[in-house]
Amino acid sequence: MAIVERSSHPGADVDYLFAQVDVVNKRVDFNPNCGNMLSAVGPYAIETGLVEPEDGTTVVKVHNLNTQRLIECHVPTPGKQVQYEGSVTISGVPGSAAGIQLSF
User: Fold this and answer.
1) Is the pLDDT score of 66 beyond 90?
2) For residues 28 and 64, is the Cβ–Cβ distance under 8 A?
3) Domains of the chain, first to last
4) pLDDT for residue 13 is more than 90
C-alpha cells in the first residue's frame, strides 16, 4: 500500500509511506520499501494535482517516510500529460509501459 500526501519536508513535493499488508497474519509492516510502488507515486502526484506537470519530463521529489530519504521520480509528461504507454518491461510482469526513472 502506498500512502501519499503533500510534503512539509524541505525539498520534497510529496511524502510517501509504504505499508506491506500481510493478510495471513493480519498485520501491517512499515519497515520495507517497494520500488515498484514508489514508481507509481510520481504519476499519482501529478494526476491528483499535488505536483504541476512540466512539458517533457516532470521530476517529482518524494520524501520516503520508511527510509527518511529523498528520491526523485522522473515521469515522462509530453504535453504536460503523464505518459503511460511505452516499451519498458520488467521481468515477470506482462506487457510494457513508459519508464519511470528513480534517483536515490
Assistant:
1) yes
2) no
3) 2-103 (3.10.310.10)
4) yes
